[in-house]
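Table S2 (continued). Query chain:
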Amino acid sequence: MRFSVSRLLIIVTSFVLVMAGATSAAADDPESFPGDLPPGYDLAGQPLEGTAAIAATLGGEIKSSKGPDDRSQNMKIMSSRPQTSFTNSDVAFWGDKAYVGNYGGFRVFDISSPANPKLLADVSCPGPQNDVAVWNNLLILSVDAVMAGPNCGDAQLPSVPRPTSGWEGVRVFDVSDPSNPQFVKSVYTDCGSHTHNIIPDDANDRLLVYVLSYALRGGPTCGDTSDPNSPGTPGNGQISIVQVPYADPAAASVLKTVPIPVGQTFDDLVPLGLPATDGCHDVQFFYELGLAAAACLSVGQLWDISDPANPVILEEFDNDSIEIWHSATFTWDGEIVVFGDESVFGSCLDASQLNGRLWFYDTAALQSGGETPLGSFLIPRLQPGEYCSSHLFNVLPRNDRYVLASSWYGGGISVIDFTDPGNAFEVGYYDAQVPTRSSAWAGYWYNGFIYSNDIPRGLDIFNLTDSAKAKTVKFPYLNPQVQENLLP
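Corresponding output:
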């Protein structure tokens, strides 16, 4: 997250965890608000001075629509469901249901009519980030802060001094009745769970959950456990794999921890008072390829996941222009892997800025040691006064053209054609301004529409009227961080 001007809109981003009580500038009470560093402010709650000048207008050829929202003519908002908690995070889909995370729990919507989604359940279960994944009747939530106990009603503990007891990790719910989700089990994992991803291991009748985290904030088994006043050093350097038996989810447990060494420690946030650490932020699975693209803060990696319980690092690569290797996805033919950079101090202010972009790589070249990107993309719209950076995205499922949808925080939702990765361009966009300005956390394509979970706004559903959506395949479900089959 890059904070480029001092008067940024105070929003909550999905990366930097701060110590309890340090975010006095945040919109929510710091003791009850378990979230991340508000862009534009340091750990003492003081505004940061900008370092990037607005040097050029990023011009595009998309026709904008006249109206209260900043949008292209081919993007329309179909429906909005305002937040009922705070800090909306990730989204997963199963059939005609959308499971929508927020730091206070999660909501379940019937999206059989995207123009009129119906709220089925609003579950209170606080914990950052409450990233969500769904598999059949199981729902998994990530919690990356130390709570007093494993249950939904347990309070978050202050992080200074470092908690020496408590709980953080993943929570398991039964959503066989989407209108009445039932809490099943909490599983403690080292350094909690910032994000996670899932692999069905049908041969062993279980769901495997890859838990990703790192030590920016200390915990009972995270950070320097010899010193209760220590921040989050040393780093985590591992993933935890949790197994959830299909027949008995209440027996969920940590199967193993797997070391994930990285070539360089992540220390970009040391100037903000946060310790150096290592670990991986997010991972994208492509089951048929047997590959995972891991965004590991300071580097990118490709993993062999053909044996799902025993991932193997194939290659590691770096890009000096990327500040935080945050997220990844593949094209549906597996030819290109896209990595997103969540800028430390903000982007979208200068055409020459290389941070905060999406970067396109040849998958086969990476596997053989080639690290030269095919190209990159930054939204062609200035965002002065707002925190702006690429965040979460997925590729539209079609086999004749490369198009993706992405959230861009204060830049809203963008649809990008990267069929020619060296000359990617924006197809359409929507940057809501009323009644609340957009700060889009997640932006995903699912069965003909774009779903955004927006930090202050809630759930927005968009319709793109453009040839980019032609020939897209519909799926029976979608966890956006999972791709199952190559498209013919």
